[in-house]
Amino acid sequence: MAVANESLRAYRAIRSSLGDFELPPGRRIPVHVIAHRLGMSIKPVEDACDQLAAEGWTIPGTETAYFAWRPDENTIAGLYDCNRAIVMAAVDRQGPKSPGADPDRALIRDTRERLARRRLRHASLAASTGGLFAAIVASSGKRDLTELVHAANERLLYLRVVECQHISDTASQLIALCDLYLDGRWDELRQAIVRYHDQRRDLVPELYGTLAAQ
């Protein structure tokens, strides 16, 4: 039981570092340093890395080395395709309704105000992107799509930070998506979602090049 508890503690510590970009994609995970900091042996940390590898957060290397997840170009493109498909499916399931009929309207309005009010740092802008898409999908009332978009957001979070280095008008694009949703202009929203993802898909070689250089 003690070993299991230590593995869980190591898992949470590493997962937090991955989510906070302390361990960006491609960085070797300092297993010994983490074990020393947490006051435990190497084994629970390795077990945690194995679990994270099964979830796609780390990549096991040789000699018990682990690396933070680094996608290839096809994986990056696939992530954008999956996210677009999830969000489009949610919009398609909205059906005819008044613009204020869903409970997520307030969250989307708050996101729009935050984006318009101040210049967000890249990490905050990336989080706002994921939050906006999650709110749009949640408003469809389809739990399966909501679970899928949360998984996509986890994989895309760091890529969205990198996007901001290449796309200067991300905030204005998100504001436009908010406006289309809040106005109930579903056809235009569909078109804007396609354009949003197509632009990023065209940037995949550059995004991958940025990741590979880190």
Folded structure, characterized:
This protein is an all-alpha fold and 214 residues long. The protein has two domains: 2-68, Winged helix-like DNA-binding domain superfamily/Winged helix DNA-binding domain (Arc Repressor Mutant, subunit A, Orthogonal Bundle); 73-213, Four Helix Bundle (Hemerythrin (Met), subunit A) (Up-down Bundle), CATH 1.20.120. It is built from ten helices and two strands. It has helices at 2-19, 31-38, 42-54, 73-92, 105-117, 122-138, 143-166, 170-182, 186-202, 204-213, and strands spanning 58-60, 66-68. Strands 1-2 form a two-stranded antiparallel sheet. Helix 6 (122-138) packs parallel to helix 8 (170-182) and helix 8 packs antiparallel against helix 9. It starts with a helix and ends with a helix.
Chain-wise SSE layout:
Layout: H1 2-19, H2 31-38, H3 42-54, E1 58-60, E2 66-68, H4 73-92, H5 105-117, H6 122-138, H7 143-166, H8 170-182, H9 186-202, H10 204-213
Antiparallel strand pairs: 1-2
Helix pairs in contact: 1-3, 2-3, 4-6, 4-7, 4-9, 5-6, 5-8, 6-7, 6-8, 7-10, 8-9
Structure characteristics:
single chain, 214 residues, mainly alpha, Arc Repressor Mutant, subunit A, Four Helix Bundle (Hemerythrin (Met), subunit A), 2 domains, two-stranded antiparallel sheet, 10 helices, 71% helix
Output the CATH topology of the largest domain: Four Helix Bundle (Hemerythrin (Met), subunit A)
The number of distinct structural domains comes to 2
The end-to-end span amounts to 38 Å
**CATH second-level architecture of the largest domain:** Up-down Bundle
Tertiary shape: elongated
Q: List low-pLDDT spans.
A: none
Summed over residues and divided by their number, the pLDDT gives a mean of 86
Give Rg in angstroms: 19 Å
The fraction of residues assigned to DSSP E strands is under 5%
